Amino acid sequence: MRTLIKHALAATEPRDFIQLGGWVRTRRDSKDFSFLELNDGSCFASIQVVADAGIPGYEQIADFTTGSSAVVEGSLVASPAAGQKWEVKARNIRLIGTADATYPLQKKGHTLEFLRTIAHLRPRSNLFGAVFRMRSKLALAVHEFFQSRDFVYVQTPIITASDCEGAGEMFRVTTLKGNIDEQPTTDFFGKKAYLTVSGQLEGETFACALSNIYTFGPTFRAENSNTARHAAEFWMIEPEMAFCDLQGDMDLAEEFIKSLAKYALEHCAEDLGFFAKFVDKGLPERLKFVVERPFVRVPYTEAVDILTKSGKKFEFSVVYGQNLQSEHERFLTEEHFKSPTTVFNYPRDIKPFYMRVNDDGKTVTAMDVLVPGIGEVIGGAQREERPDVLVEQMKHHNLNPADYWWYADLRKYGTVPHAGFGLGFERLIMFLTAVSNIRDVIPFARTPGNAEF
Ligand code: 4AD
Ligand code: MG
Predict the structure, then answer these.
(1) CB neighbourhood size of 352 (10 A)
(2) Is the pLDDT of residue 418 over 80?
(3) Alpha carbon of 377 to ligand 1 centroid (Å)
(4) Please, what is the average pLDDT of the chain?
(5) Residue 358's closest CA among 396, 301, 366?
(6) Which of 12, 32, 50, 238 is deepest in the core (most CB within 10 A)?
């Protein structure tokens, strides 16, 4: 049976027989033997294979080019070379598929922009191998975080008829031809349907039955914003807790981010080491800081005050009552507080209908967690649990309460204070890897004008 290179490299003693498969990174030929660097993506490191001239398969050695695939059998022996514990002394080498000189990943030094044009091959590069191994580990960490606290994992629907965020940024799902707005009742679902922007509303129904729940799935937004932090398809994790207020919500958000940073430090050391070396030297220190220090919490009004008094020239001016722009968020977290920062109690008009109205009647119990280098990673709120205020909020936001009858029912039958948030999984991975463009932390990015692969 084939052994993963990760497992071979972690061996505690030599092995007389081992079979490995992988892709050739480099080959160096001497008179009587060749060195092959074989990588199978199971870990960052490649393994060195020493193939003597004359062993079975060696007659094809010229075709073991960079990018070709091979299976190697031999013994795992201590390596005399510096920086590697083990190497393989090959007994036979088998070329599976060669790669000709057009293989785009010859050597190193490609730009991220170029690698995006070969998204089908970039997982074979060092950076993308590290990103996607870490993404996989962090997905497990998300489940462990919630499961260990007895949150129930709920798979909310991807196709929905309600606009949770009320921002009208939804992709339509239809089987109609021609004018799709003419007779929506004849459409597949008998009404207009969309790809979901958030599983929150459905998630709330489960929290109002099972107490603490979370979702973890794809969400879609037809936002035409070509930025480094927006994708049209991204993954969101949305916990929702019954009998919970804004304070408890902010506590959970903070604990969650800390726990994921801790997990990365403890379980992804090799890949983190690569990011620290080639992407951002300060990364490990920053993650330790995140784990150890409490986040700053500041009400929106105070944040606006800080921004207006900062004397800093922003592209967009800071106006009370308007949304914070990314540059404002980054100023707060990167320059002013120099810490992850939770901003809470935003003006009612700029936040969705479901957030609980504060006693001042002007603000809602919203909270956004901002982190250095990214800005917002989490958006959440305590939900409006009072039936009459909820209906008023819907009207205030120009929504038809009849469309949200089932959501309002949660307030009619045994209503409870409850709260939750959404964490953008890609943004979190950007934060934990220091990779600065969302297109490079998702396997195949969906952005305006781009759905190749
Ligand atoms: O702040 P948002 O819009 O909040 C919600 O969707 C709520 N329903 C969540 C809840 O309370 N259950 O989105 C939550 C997070 C953002 O903070 C951001 O990290 C991420 O989702 N996000 C995006 N990530 C990538 N591309 C986009 N276009 C994103 N839009 C939001
Ligand atoms: Mg938000």
Answers:
(1) 19
(2) yes
(3) 7
(4) 96
(5) 366
(6) 238
Split at pLDDT 50, 70, 90, the class of 340 is: very high
For each of the domains in the chain, give its residue range(s) and CATH number, in order of start. 5-97 (2.40.50.140), 122-440 (3.30.930.10)
Rounded to 5 degrees, what are φ and ψ at 420?
-170, -175
User: With bands split at pLDDT 50, 70 and 90, how would you rate the model's confidence at 242?
Assistant: very high
Using a 6 Å cutoff on CB, does residue 223 contact ligand 1?
yes
Q: Give distance in angstroms: CA of 376 to centre of ligand 2.
A: 7
Residue 427, ligand 1, Cβ within 6 A: yes
382 ligand 1 Cβ < 6 A: no
∠ at Cα 272 (334, 292), nearest 5°? 50
Which ligand is in closest contact with the Cα of 424? 1
This prediction's pTM: 0.97
* Ligand nearest to the Cα of 376, by number: 1
Residue from 351, 355, 427, 430 to probe ligand 1 pocket by mutation (most atoms less than 8 Å from CB): 427
Confidence (pLDDT) at 166: 84
Phi, psi at 83, each rounded to 5° = 80, 5
Q: Give the residue, by CA position, lying nearest to ligand 1 atom 1.
A: 379
Long-range (24+ apart) CB contacts under 8 A made by 176-180 are: none
In this structure, are residues 334 and 287 in contact, taking their beta carbons and an 8 Å threshold? Answer: no
Q: How many Å lie between the centroid of ligand 1 and the Cα of residue 351?
A: 12
- Give the per-residue pLDDT at 109: 81
Helices then strands, counting H and E runs in the chain, come out as 12, 16
Mutate which of 204, 221, 236 for ligand 1? The one with the most ligand atoms within 8 Å of its CB, which is 236
pLDDT tens-digit map of 32-66: 999 999 999 999 999 999 999 999 999 999 999 99
CB 396 within 8 A of CB 353: yes
Residue 230, ligand 1, Cβ within 6 A = yes
CA-proximal residue: ligand 1, atom 28 (nearest): 230
Taking alpha carbons only, the member of 371, 365, 374 closest to residue 420 is 365
Q: Is the minimum distance from the CB of 73 to ligand 1 under 6 angstroms?
A: no
Segment 316-338 shows an average pLDDT of: 96
Size (the chain), residues: 453
Q: What pLDDT shows up at residue 36?
A: 98
Ligand 2 centroid to 429 CA: how many Å?
A: 17
